[in-house]
Design goal:
The protein is of the alpha/beta class. The chain contains 14 helices and 14 strands. An eight-stranded mixed beta sheet has the order 3-4-2-1-5-6-7-8, sandwiched between helices. It has a six-stranded parallel beta sheet with strand order 11-10-9-12-13-14, sandwiched between helices.
Length: about 375
Amino acid sequence: MEKLKICFVCANPHFEGGVSYYQKNLIKYLQSKNRNLDISWVYKSHRNEKYTKDGVNYIGLGSGKIDFLSDFTFNKKALKYLNKNQFDIINSHALYGYWMKKYKKKPNQKLIHTYHGAGLPYYKIHLKKFGLIKKILLSPLLYYAYIIEKSPIKNADKIICVSEKVKKQIEETYGKRDKIFAIRTGVDLTDFKLRDKNKIRKALNLEKKGVYGLHVAKGGYWIKGLDRVIKLSKEIYKKEKNYRLIVIGQDYEKNKILLNHKFIIPIEKIPREEIPLYYSASDIFFCLSRYEGGGPTLVVSEAMASGCLIVCSESSEQEIIKNEKNGVILEKFDEKDADKIIILLKNKKKLSGIIKDSTRTIKGLSLEKWGEKYLEVLLK
């Protein structure tokens, strides 16, 4: 029987970010269900590279190092590669679907695109950070976001959005269309699960009786709300001297002014297999982003499965989080918000109820259940 050939056009697999882990989870699920697959992963790289690992063909297309320009260069090279090679299904992700604009679709082929966010509102929020002159100078980013995301809307057979919010924003930007699906991101419950907190803390050399907050993000500090997390953590630390904030994934040199506090434990790089341990060791997980596509994001779903108290900003729009039911939603990140968290941490009965509801919620978004929904759109 001839193998089904699937090509994913996605973020660099070497990048330790949400989109690449999303793709790895999807491939893991596909391989668990069907071994008769020929899977390729085409991605933007600094140089051309090609290799095979764990049954996946990896094709890196050298696209330069200049931000934004490299996205167009990559899509141009991806177009050339996809025209030359035969695939039954092509599933592009995020900004990597612009190649569809000039692609000559082959007979019986399916084109699917997954939106991990909506570029136009994402960059509009970015621009709020700057003064008037910088806003004017950087305003072409809005045109870039609109152009590079538009092609799949017209040319893809199906569209997948990682949340209802992204689906709504995409349709508001480009208009409604048929065969657009919202599939919330799933989590691997074999890797991310409840563990003995005391044992994990001992293994990580953390204080047994400490209170630990956790922030995991590879992206820019502003959009990911690291400044908000630190502002709130300062207020918690004033009242609870045994409080520590673990920050994973941020470039220390770029953000050392923010990170230079004695209650912060910065960890710039960490093996992926150790991440679940830090979730399990932590009491609180912060997602105080100014914009997120996923509702939940991958890190929020991982933290939920690990038994953390989820503390979100209203602007992160984590759709499955209901305030004081399976998490906490904050707006100001000030002393009053810090008091809310401290009071909740001391109310063991209420805290336990919220965490139980959170873990129960995320079981509905297991890798298995998410993968099943994704596979239905991808293959049927």
